[in-house]
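Please, is this right?
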Amino acid sequence: MAYDGEMGADQRIDREHEAVAGTERRRLRADAARNRAAIIEAAREVFAEHGLEAPLEEIACRAGVGIATLYRRFPGREQLIAAALVEKVTQYAEAAADALAVADPWAGFADYVQRICELQAADRGLSELLSMTLSADEHIEELRATANGRVMELIDRAKAAGRLREDFVGEDLLLLLIASAAVGQVTLALDAFQCRCSPGLPLPPSAAQMNLAMRRLAATRGCGARPGLG
């Protein structure tokens, strides 16, 4: 009986140790979640203010964590950019969907261009992200592909309505985004896009040329390897 009693005491001690260990694990998980959320929020602010090349040390400092903690949560800059800006890229895709819901094709197209330029003007990080690829994050690129498909619908609708010049292509709008047009310049750009008797636009860059340019921009901002010149 005494032996059985000793075993019972040992079992109680084991259960107490397991309970303490479980509490500690939950505390560590909660701390990790808080740190991750703080890092993402700080990254949103810093990238919006200073762009995607902003020092990660500044983000860690603003989040109240050490740089080692930041790297444990986000081993690469690309992962941090994706986590910080996924909501803004979602807004970018949703803006195109909202524009397609506008009955007037030209108004929908013009509203979309205005909205995207407003988003860019308010967030330097988003402006830079829209001009580059982020191949390390499939979700961001899926959102971008969805948005681009909707933009092509906007362009086709405006052309079919006779309001957008026939030689306008999606790459022309992308070049506008890469140029990070200020909101005050949008009216001038939209006026140039309208259908009227005027000299044709230069041939647009090919999709391969645009992709190469965007990957090079990504590399200059610390996201991925720099592609070759060939």
